[in-house]
Design a protein that fits this description.
The complex is a heterodimer of chains A (144) and B (445). With 144 residues, chain A is mainly alpha-helical. Chain A has helices spanning 2-26, 28-63, 66-90, 107-143. Chain A has 2 domains: 1-57, no CATH class; 64-138, no CATH class. The chains are: A mainly alpha (144), B alpha+beta (445).
């Protein structure tokens, strides 16, 4: 089962390598830019995105009170993901001339509204968590 | 540090140990590994922990190997600096870094990649059909659904990929860099997997926005790398199968569940934010849908008449070519033939789709008119002189379908020039790029 799976994977990978070779050898720009976009993903992720996200997580875990950690982190993650997916719509120096009915909406405002909804959710979840942790600590607090 | 944290930086203990003697690199790992909180889950899927540590201690004192010769000496200032800023696998204490999390994210990421690969392959086959391949005209929404799944599963894979990579990120810093030949191959295959996955998701998301920060031809690149990406996924699953089985069989504790929940929440948010391009219910909800209602006659245009350099020509005649001769029909003559109205979607390879009401002459009627056998293949040529999609071929399964039209009207009005005036092809369950506009010639094959 495992061997079969591995051989299937290698066969698919091999076919992809043949296609990629044909693609890369047909034009110089294909080879250069194709390779740059291929290796760029892991490089930017491992060298920039992951360290920044990790350090931000570390910082937040020290700054934020415990009940607010999960909601704020979730809010930041959703904000980051939506912004990332929105980049090709928001940043278009390489975009084609706008086609009527395609990529012609106000994406900045749309994203801002969506993020407003997300952070309203964060606020509600944070308050709920805070309330719950107060209940849990209620005994201690009334005693003090 | 009493708190578990998402540390990617060197916490205090690494700076304390950084200046100790040169032979203790692996020893330090052992020492620190023994210090970490029980259950704080590092070195997730690295195989049994004893083996990696044992491999380290075996080599202790030799510090040799090919890799080390290219690295600065650990005693040099640069070497010490690198050791101080570079995190160690054991520094990562977030509950995210555990095989139980990795396997669950991987499962969903695998599902997303499988769906994306299969639907993408299908779209490729419909556009470049080999002899053995056939694609039905019914249900009319089939291509709309498969291509919608392609784009949505691709969007869903973005947060899943980030979450999964974060889950295994500490393994990037596992030392020694290379333990053995299989280990080197595995690391290389994971680099290929990550490169191909990022390539597919990035180019795909830029392509749906028709935004091209590169000069290569997108479909060829996206297609070739799709095989590399999916092949790497299958190989990766084969390599990790025992770990996946073990990890999925054990329940997830609350801290890890919270990380997973955040990942799935972000995935859901990404899907809802974009799925309105094809799901009518979400049309007014998705803020990042690249389709709008601003197209002429309420339908988006992917290539304008201006871009295709086509103008309205009163002398236009439709040419129907058979082996025996050419029949020419004016637009008035076409409009005098029995008309048929059908609700059919335009479903773009870029994932957006929208239904519209089309009126025109069924291709089957035109074939009957000139005496061609029903179900003949028809090659359609556009008035546009250049462009990758000026010619398309309607297979017999489509020319036989009564709803495959040479459309003259759209949503009750004369077809707009941008939608293919004087006449265009509209057929059920086809990629939008094959719904040829500004039709000039039909050749019965």
């Amino acid at each position: 089962m495992r061997l079969l799976l591995a051989l299937t994977g290698l066969a698919l990978l091999g076919y992809g390598a043949v296609l990629a070779w044909d693609f890369a050898t047909s034009r110089t720009v294909n080879a250069v830019q194709g390779a740059a976009w291929f290796i760029g993903g892991p490089l930017v992720h491992d060298g920039l995105v992951a360290p920044v996200v990790g350090l931000a997580g570390l910082g937040l875990s020290r700054v934020l009170p415990r009940p607010w950690r999960a909601p704020v982190v979730a809010g930041l993650v959703v904000t980051g993901v939506l912004t990332l997916i929105g980049i090709p719509l928001l940043w278009r120096p390489f975009g084609v001339v706008t086609n009527p009915g395609l990529h012609d909406r106000d994406y900045g405002t749309g994203l801002a509204i969506a993020l407003g909804v997300v952070w309203a959710g964060v606020l509600l979840a944070g308050l709920a968590q805070q309330y719950r942790s107060r209940l849990a600590l209620g005994q201690d607090q009334s005693a003090s | 540090m009493t708190e578990r944290s998402d540390a990617a930086s060197g916490p205090p203990e690494s700076s304390v140990t950084a200046d100790t003697d040169k032979n203790d690199h692996e020893g330090r790992v052992v020492h620190r590994a023994s210090l970490r909180e029980p259950g704080s889950g590092t070195s997730a899927a690295a195989g049994p922990p004893e083996s990696s540590l044992a491999a380290g201690t075996d080599k202790n004192g030799r510090r040799g190997g090919v890799v080390h010769r290219f690295l600065p000496s650990p005693d040099s200032r640069l070497g010490r600096f690198i050791r101080r800023v570079q995190p160690d696998e054991a520094n990562f204490r977030s509950p995210a870094h555990h095989e139980k999390v990795t396997a669950r994210l991987g499962l969903w990421l695998g599902v997303a990649f499988l769906l994306c690969f299969l639907t993408g392959l299908l779209s490729h086959l419909i556009q470049h059909p080999p002899a053995w391949f056939g694609w039905p005209a019914r249900p009319a929404n089939l291509y709309r659904i498969t291509q919608g799944i392609h784009v949505i599963s691709g969007v869903a894979a973005v947060p899943l990929l980030f979450a999964k990579l974060w889950s295994v990120y500490p393994k990037l810093f596992s030392r020694p860099v290379i333990r053995s030949l299989p280990h080197a191959l595995e690391r290389l295959s994971i680099l290929v997997l990550a490169g191909a996955a990022f390539f597919e998701l990035t180019t795909g998301i830029f392509n749906v926005a028709q935004n091209y920060p590169w000069a290569f031809y997108f479909p060829a690149a996206h297609y070739a790398v799709a095989w590399i990406a999916f092949g790497s996924v299958v190989l990766h699953v084969a390599v990790k199968l025992p770990i996946i089985r073990r990890a999925l069989a054990t329940p997830v504790d609350p801290a890890r569940r919270s990380f997973l929940r955040t990942g799935f929440l972000a995935t859901g948010a990404a899907v809802v934010a974009t799925a309105g391009v094809t799901v009518p219910l979400l049309r007014d909800v998705s803020p990042l849908s690249w389709r709008s209602d601003r197209g002429p006659q309420g339908l988006p245009v992917n290539r304008t008449a201006n871009a295709a350099r086509v103008t309205a020509d009163p002398a236009w005649r439709l040419e129907i070519v058979t082996r025996t001769g050419i029949t020419r029909l004016s637009r008035t003559q076409l409009a005098d033939l029995p008309q048929r109205t059908a609700d059919l979607p335009i479903a773009c390879v870029e994932g957006w789709s929208q239904s519209a009401t089309w009126t025109g002459v069924p291709i089957a009627d035109l074939l009957a008119l000139i005496g061609a056998p029903p179900g003949s293949e028809v090659r359609v040529t556009s008035l546009e002189r250049r462009g990758a999609y000026r010619v398309s071929t309607l297979p017999g399964s489509h020319t036989r379908d009564p709803d495959t039209l040479l459309a003259l009207r759209l949503n009750g009005e004369t077809l707009a020039l941008d939608h293919g005036f004087p006449a265009r092809i509209i057929a059920p369950s086809r990629p939008g790029v094959l719904q040829t506009k500004w039709v000039h010639r039909l050749e019965v094959l």
